[in-house]
Amino acid sequence: MWFRIDFHSSKPIYEQIKEGIKLLILSGRLREGEFLPSIRSLAEDLGVNLNTVARAYRELVMEGVLEVRRGEGYVVADVRREALQGFLEDALKNVLRDCKTAGISEERVIEIVGEVYGGEGGC
Amino acid sequence: MWFRIDFHSSKPIYEQIKEGIKLLILSGRLREGEFLPSIRSLAEDLGVNLNTVARAYRELVMEGVLEVRRGEGYVVADVRREALQGFLEDALKNVLRDCKTAGISEERVIEIVGEVYGGEGGC
Amino acid sequence: MWFRIDFHSSKPIYEQIKEGIKLLILSGRLREGEFLPSIRSLAEDLGVNLNTVARAYRELVMEGVLEVRRGEGYVVADVRREALQGFLEDALKNVLRDCKTAGISEERVIEIVGEVYGGEGGC
Amino acid sequence: MWFRIDFHSSKPIYEQIKEGIKLLILSGRLREGEFLPSIRSLAEDLGVNLNTVARAYRELVMEGVLEVRRGEGYVVADVRREALQGFLEDALKNVLRDCKTAGISEERVIEIVGEVYGGEGGC
DNA sequence: GTGGTCTAGACCACG
DNA sequence: GTGGTCTAGACCACT
């Protein structure tokens, strides 16, 4: 499949799945109207429980990211990318504020940005 | 007191306390050899249970951030700031990787960095 | 169950549990990948509180002895026996140093070793 | 002074003092009828609280290891060395049993005995 | 069902 | 006064 689950992380698996899907959408690898893998097949691919995937999909529906087509499956809804990006930018700002408070210099931060953006990418 | 607890956050209280203390140390508001508030008084100030604070302190001892002086209290250990900063830099890298995947441009990120570091600071 | 708790000992119960589990692993009665009893069931079997067992398990995870499978339980991690044996050898050295200081002869010590190893074994 | 206190140990300081004194007696560096340092001076030497030393002395009196001469101080009582040694031999046997259960070979144990007894001793 | 967190409150050990 | 441990019981999150 397209992303990995970290079974040792303290972050719940269903949240890892949700995040993974959001990132796939943001990065353009999943587009509006495309079908997602069935709950059953994704669960098998990731090696997790059916209910776990089901919950991730269900919550993404509630957030408006996915839509259910009964009897067919889940498709990517008509999401505004900016909305999703906003949540990432907020996260970034929070960490940056902590870095500033902690005395990490702006230069060092920009160095790190370079590392990440320069380096080969991707999840 | 010195920091706030978000009781609605999904992040456990004891972890919020750990993070808060690490940030206080990183920002220089808590220095090597200084005593932390007693478990009981911090618990009261934060409005949480004694055991919750105790767990945070205990784990910080295991991580080498604090030391126990038996019958006296907890003091800030002789920590290398770099070690603590590492934990923030890791958090930063994670968010940045997500931003990259999500298609947020490096320029936009640096713009945000500028906002945070330019603007007047601090938690 | 597999071991006994001495409620009168000055050694904390959660440490007795940790030690008991380490010894079960070292003696081969618990192997890599095997599940431990659930927190609740072990607590009931030992007649102690759930939190006490939980703490023992949690600390064993931090020491790399166990792993958590969320929603499933705790399993014995892929531990190097030597690592665990080290903790026993340290204990042995400490006692031996005291014996030496106390004027117990090396011959007497080896005699005792013979007694224990010769005699039919263990707990 | 004659022994060191490990302030980071989980073993209570007063127990470390008790053990230290017992070992001094067993090794012959403190003999029957000899005076121990006053509570006040030992506390200062060790850098611990008065009450801590007082408690150690008090318990050693209860165990028959020391005697109080009111107004003069504490002296080493008429102790049978064997009695004290017995408690060490018991401790040794316990650890050895664990070692055996854990699969540490008799050869390895004797090797360790050699290390400790061969090596320079003390403190 | 599993583990995880948290509370309220008790009691002990230490300095 | 300090920290340490433990209990009983609640509620939540995960699989």
Description:
The structure is a homotetramer of 123-residue chains. Chain A is mainly alpha-helical and 123 residues long. Chain A has 2 domains: 13-76, Winged helix-like DNA-binding domain superfamily/Winged helix DNA-binding domain (Arc Repressor Mutant, subunit A, Orthogonal Bundle); 81-118, no CATH class. Helix content of chain A is 56%, strand content 7%. The first copy, chain A, has a two-stranded antiparallel sheet. In chain A, helix 1 (13-26) packs across helix 3 (50-62) and helix 2 (39-46) packs across helix 3. Chains in contact: A-B, A-C, B-D, C-D. At the B-D interface, loops of B face loops of D. Chain B binds a DNA duplex (15 and 15 nucleotides) through helix 3.
Query: What is the CATH superfamily label of the largest domain in chain A?
Result: Winged helix-like DNA-binding domain superfamily/Winged helix DNA-binding domain
Count of DSSP-assigned helices of chain A = 5
Look at the structure and give the mean pLDDT of chain A.
Answer: 84
Number of strands of chain A: 2
Total of domains of chain A: 2
Main sheet overview of chain A: 2 strands, antiparallel
- The arrangement of helices and strands of chain A along the chain is HHHEEHH
Radius of gyration of chain A: 17 Å
- Terminal residue distance of chain A: 12 Å
The assembly state of the depicted protein chains is homotetramer
Strand line-up in the sheet with most strands of chain A: 1-2
Q: Which architecture of the largest domain in chain A per CATH? A: Orthogonal Bundle
Low-confidence stretches of chain A: none
Globular, elongated, flat, extended or rod-shaped: what is the shape of chain A? elongated
Q: Helices and strands of chain A: which structural class?
A: mainly alpha
The most extensive contact between chains is: A-B, 35 and 34 residues
Instruction: Please report which band the strand proportion of chain A falls in: under 5%, 5-15%, 15-25%, 25-35%, 35-45% or over 45%.
Output: 5-15%
